[in-house]
Amino acid sequence: MKFSEIIYSKAENELKNRRERAEKLAAMRRKEFIASNPELIDIENEMKNAALEVIRSVGSDGKNVDISVIAKRNLQAQEAKRELIKAAGYPEDYLDIPYSCKNCNDSGIHNGRLCQCHLALLQQLSIGELSCSPMLAGSTFDSFDIKYYSEVKDPQYGFSPRDYMRGCYEMLKAYAENFTPRSNSFFFSGGTGLGKTHLALAVFNKVTQSGYSVYYNTASSIIKQLEKERFGRSAESLEEEIEKNDLVIIDDLGAEFSTPFAQATVNELINNAMLSGKPMIIISNLSVDELENRYGQRVVSRLNSFEVIEFMGEDIRQLKK
Question: Against a cut of 0.85, is the pTM above it?
Answer without folding.
Answer: no
